[in-house]
Design goal:
S-adenosyl-L-methionine; single chain; about 15% strand; 11 helices; Methyltransferase, Cobalt-precorrin-4 Transmethylase, Domain 2; elongated; five-stranded parallel beta sheet; Cobalt-precorrin-4 Transmethylase, domain 1; about 300 residues
Length: about 300
């Protein structure tokens, strides 16, 4: 999982180191140099085995390697037997991005391949690689994704909440007032919400979520995903907030998943008020469609009520 608050620890419980494959390029063909371009390589968020064969092939073959944390990148390559062969792993993070980007982009423009890995997980997800990819695209340089582990998708997979529509909201502000303001803007988003959070702020964040989003909203707190002590705790925001307040900050990385808002049936008075407002500036047909979408009521029912109101 990328981002300043995450300290990935590659798990020691991995399978034996794989033998080098003869088919070790991303296309699984004969060994050959990578085409010039920027390669965004997803890396494990915990267990070292959660890396793809394609990712390992790119790391073996790239002309230049860049990483948010060079130590983590070298350790991962060592675990999987990927030699550096004299290549350096160049640091690329929030503090040196402005200085490092021109060098990496110049290398690509000169016909070299550059592989970038974030701290852990998929690059550009709460990660400084966004500006690197953005500027490469602006210069019409090739950008290729080597997908893989993602804390967002892993959390959605185990949370038990709707996944047909979701919004990744990243890190909320650390101060309660600003956090509640941002949560208010997200309260009516008709989708499952996914957040990254610091363990020491988890209880306070859940309390603010219960107060703003509603204590009855279903949620899941996913901790140490893919690692030895992975834990997923499910419940309502009203139940999870005091539980973590009593227990104190947990250990490890945390992802919070909050279910979509529960649609409550509109009352007859609410429906009439909404229709009256909509019909002031729209045709009866359009007003019925607008109100039906806003309330979740069947369009035929809303249209019939609109006809009654107009007749009255």
């Amino acid at each position: 999982m990328a981002g300043r608050l995450w300290t990935p620890r590659i798990s020691a419980h991995t399978s034996p180191r794989p033998r080098p494959s003869k088919r070790n390029n991303p296309q699984h063909g004969p060994t050959m140099a990578l085409s010039p371009g920027l390669y965004l390589v997803a890396t494990p968020i915990g267990t070292a085995d959660d890396i793809t064969l394609r990712a390992l092939a790119i790391l073996r073959q790239a002309d230049l390697l860049a990483a948010e944390d060079t130590r983590n990148a070298r350790k991962l390559m060592e675990i999987h037997g990927v030699p550096l062969n004299g290549r350096r792993v160049l640091p690329y993070h929030d503090h040196n991005g402005a200085q490092a980007r021109p060098r990496l982009l110049k290398a690509i423009a000169e016909g070299r391949s550059v592989a970038y890995v974030s701290d852990a997980g998929t690059p550009l997800i709460a990660d400084p690689g966004y500006r690197l990819a953005q500027e490469a695209i602006a210069q019409d340089l090739p950008v290729t994704a080597a997908p893989g582990a993602s804390a967002v998708l892993a959390a959605l997979s185990v949370a038990g909440l709707p996944t047909d529509r979701f919004l990744f909201a990243g890190f909320l502000p650390p101060k309660s007032a600003a956090r509640r303001t941002e949560l208010t803007a997200l309260a009516q988003v008709p989708a499952t919400l996914v957040f990254y959070e610091s363990p020491r702020r988890l209880a306070a964040c859940l309390a603010d979520m219960a107060g703003v989003l509603g204590g009855s909203r279903d949620a899941a707190v996913c901790r140490e995903l893919t690692k030895r002590f992975e834990q997923v705790r499910r419940g309502t925001l009203a139940g999870l907030a005091p539980a973590y307040a009593d227990e104190g900050p947990p250990k490890g990385e945390v992802v919070i998943v909050v279910g979509p808002p529960v649609q409550t049936p509109a009352s007859e008075a609410d429906l009439d008020s909404a229709l009256a407002a909509a019909m002031r500036d729209n045709s009866l047909k359009d007003a019925a469609s607008i109100v039906a979408e806003a309330t979740g009521l069947p369009r035929k029912q809303v249209y019939a009520r609109a006809l009654e109101l107009r007749g009255a």
